[in-house]
Design brief:
The protein is an alpha+beta fold. It has helices spanning 145-170, 175-186, 197-209, 214-224, 256-265, 290-295, 304-307, 315-334; strands at 2-3, 18-19, 22-23, 29-30, 36-37, 39-41, 45-47, 66-67, 81-82, 112-117, 228-239, 242-253. The strands form 5 sheets. It has a 4-stranded antiparallel sheet with strand order 9-11-12-10. It has a two-stranded antiparallel ribbon with strand order 1-2. A two-stranded antiparallel ribbon has the order 3-4.
Length: 335
Amino acid sequence: MCAADLNGNGDASDPGEVASCTLAVDATWQCPLQSVTCTGDATAGYACPLGPSYACKAPAIGGTPTCSPNACTDPVSAPIADEPVTDDPGVPADGELDATGACLGNIEIFSGRAMRCRPPGLKTTFSNCCKDKGKIVKDGMGGSISSIGTKIAVAKGVFTGMKAAYTAFKAGATASQAASAGANAIIVGIDPTSIAISLAINFMVDFLLSGCDQQDMEVGMLRGSGMCHEVGSYCSSKILGICIQKSRGHCCFNTKLGRIIQEQGRPQLKSFNGIGWGTPKNPMCRGFTPEEFQALDFSKMDLSEYYSDIEARTQGEIQVDMKDKIDAYMQTVGH
């Protein structure tokens, strides 16, 4: 195979920039990308218009010799180098509880997970595994502890569902069967109204048939539902140093509110100065410490994006529910 940056954007991850080489009569290989017909004839010899450093090779199937500026490589002897998939399980329950049930370990508020999805490239057979399919996961406004617990469980349910769907599909299930298995796994332990099941099934079928993997699907669902902050793009697969597949690094949160407060709260805190969101390859998705969270000035935050998802209610009612929700979140984390 061979790869070439045909559009000059610094990589070979776009359609038409990777090709299978053709066999030549001398049992070597010729890259078809940017190849040109050699001049001359069999008697006088052939010359490559691109320069003498490029060999003219006649196709094994017959025809005029061609030359190409791009080299062929054997994926067996020079395999594609893949960056490991980001494996961030999120903040675990890492501490003991005291006699009152309060957490004695580290507390992170509105913490996220570092994840990636892949735009069109060779490894995704040029399917867009970062595409948004609409809002599937619902981030409600409930203010009680039980409601908050339900909302926090939704993102974990998405992970469980995507894993079940992908595992079933790899085991031989049809895309429809795998999607049904994923949907059944999602709704276990969460409020079924928190997710649009029919949309989720259609989403999984589409992504499975597109060749996307489990994390692509998970990010796609959470991203489309407004729960992910995109950090940037990086090269995740190379061959002979040429990038053939990019990935987009994200921080994905349990709720849309968590993502919004993280985006607008981090610039207020010195502890995030110079760190920001980390790098696209290694997103920094930690939550706020209790001290950092208490230092946030919510009056300087624009929460209109979140308000637009809420049923029409008075601004005063929304503000009260916002306070209740944050207080309930603190109680949930603390216990």
